Amino acid sequence: MFRAIALLFMTLLVSSVFAYPNVHHHQVSPLTNALRTGTDTNGAILYLCQAKLFGSIQPGKTWAGYGRCNVPYGGKEYVVDQFTIPNQRSFGQFNWERDHRSALQIGKDTNGNPLFVCQANFNGSIQPGKTWPGYNHCNISYAGREVITDYFRVLSRQQEIIVGSKIPRGQPNNMHSHY
Question: Which domain of life is it from (predicted)?
Answer without folding.
Answer: Bacteria
